[in-house]
């Protein structure tokens, strides 16, 4: 059974899935997906980003974090929103441009569902210098000392440590780490970075660097400066 | 979001072998309260809350129903960096609800939450940075005056500053708890300290102040000394205040900043400040809630006495600090009367309510008072339209009692309970015969 997020699921999408012979269930919220989840779990997920991208990304995020994480997730993305895919590689396995061509979507679905291991085994460990994050247990440590983080501090550090050397604007961090549902604007990022630096301790606080008038960078820049 | 946070908390508690989780909340007087649950109960607590009898908590008592529900705020779950390594403990702040799930009106955290949320309709966020002062003393002996640990003074860095190590360890502990410190130093009076926290969202900051007071006392106790937030523990030297820096942000922009204004203050900042000034007396019982608070608010000890504002005048109630390098995001107001004996949830809520009343009703900001107000006579002050803060707890309560603003912001329950409780405190004080009177009158009358 495939879970399809769309509010509502477009007739075009419904017809394509039906013709391709997939059993599927349309939902418009995370709660809906939890309630309708078959005992064996979802075999795959198709997420339509065309109507309400914010709600759809929030859904994908929940899906990836929930226990019922389907191994195969495809997002339908309008051409104008391709940039939204950037830095969200961990959230989906394949994508298809919307409006889609039915035979393309069908071919992609077939490929995605047929592969035995569709997702390259996501590593459970992120290591950078003295910092280690275990994504399975949510535990972080620095120089073998456990770091006791709140959930959002952990999520922010994880995101940064997975993308070392890259400069992020605060808006980018807000949308990728918090999702859109968060109230408080980019200042939120600043206060979380400060708390993280405090917890990392003086000797490691510069793991997260402020890039003046741009945002933040984790670790050394790609040019070694 | 809450599901993921709870999941994170449960996994962390299991991984880190947390034996006990302390559920923290605050009574109306600003005391931290706590009860502990085992790790096995945590999942249940996160989903349904924990019932407890609130009737003996100050300000929680109600006649008909005494059971209330503590619902943990998973974003505040934090392993405590002290205590026995073999039995790790964690804390989580709670919101208090009625058994039917509605917010409990005796819960100070929800008073602030309500104020902060009503700000969202204006698209604004309230940021706070407190400068907290306190004293270290040798363990108290009943009936004796407190004994300072050193004779150090402002910014001292000598062996006279016996409290430097205490301060250092306190800061390290605070930082482990995610409470960043901006400045810290030996203050003016013997073994008096100041630690300034970096600004954060008002609700998180109120939680941080509660944690701060515990950490300071905890570290002191580990060293066999005593820390106090009593506003004026020693006669003749400065007392302890909690100067409160405030700003409002609209998204990424400081809503108090205006590059085209001679003061760099926006109209919003000015009417907010006008609101603070006009309602200052009404909120003083909350920001300065003890009999002792008013022994700090006297001339000559860098504490405010007059209701005025200025850019660089430390004798007024509100100071508008000049930001470093004209940094717009550092534009803020420093409200100087609060002391660290206050309930931070209620104090921050009242400051916000007073300021926003000024904004919503478009109050006009009075002129800057840049003279040293302590040198002006009463007639000069009244010509300038500068009033005084209440002179005693009794005065404060009398003004608060008439205040619609306080009643509305605190809610009927806390408003009534607070006045009742504090009037009793004043009555107890009034009947006390002090050493001052014995020394002064016994022989001569």
Descriptive tags:
heterodimer; A: 225 residues; alpha/beta; Rossmann fold; Arc Repressor Mutant, subunit A; 34% helix; elongated; B: 445 residues; alpha+beta; Ubiquitin-like (UB roll); Creatine Kinase, Chain A, domain 2; ten-stranded mixed beta sheet; six-stranded mixed beta sheet; 13 helices; globular
Folded structure, characterized:
The complex is a heterodimer of chains A (225) and B (445). Chain A has 225 residues and is an alpha/beta fold. Chain A has two domains: 2-114, Rossmann fold (3-Layer(aba) Sandwich); 125-218, Arc Repressor Mutant, subunit A, CATH 1.10.10. In chain A, 34% of the residues lie in helices and 22% in strands. Chain A has seven helices and twelve strands. Chain A has helices at residues 11-19, 30-36, 53-65, 102-114, 151-162, 170-178, 187-200, and strands spanning 2-5, 24-27, 44-48, 73-78, 94-98, 125-128, 131-134, 139-142, 145-147, 167-169, 208-211, 215-218. Chain A has a five-stranded parallel sheet with strand order 2-1-3-4-5, with helices on both faces. In chain A, strand 1, helix 1 and strand 2 (24-27) form a beta-alpha-beta unit. In chain A, helix 1 (11-19) crosses helix 4 (102-114), helix 5 packs across helix 7 (187-200) and helix 6 (170-178) crosses helix 7 (187-200). The longest helix of chain A has 14 residues, at 187-200. The N and C termini of chain A lie far apart (50 Å). The mean pLDDT of chain A is 85. Chain B is an alpha+beta fold and 445 residues long. Chain B has two domains: 2-100, Ubiquitin-like (UB roll); 114-437, Creatine Kinase, Chain A, domain 2. Chain B contains 13 helices and 16 strands. The longest helix of chain B is centred in the last third of the chain and has 27 residues, at 404-430. Chain B starts with a helix and ends with a helix. The interface between A and B is medium-sized, with 31 and 37 residues.
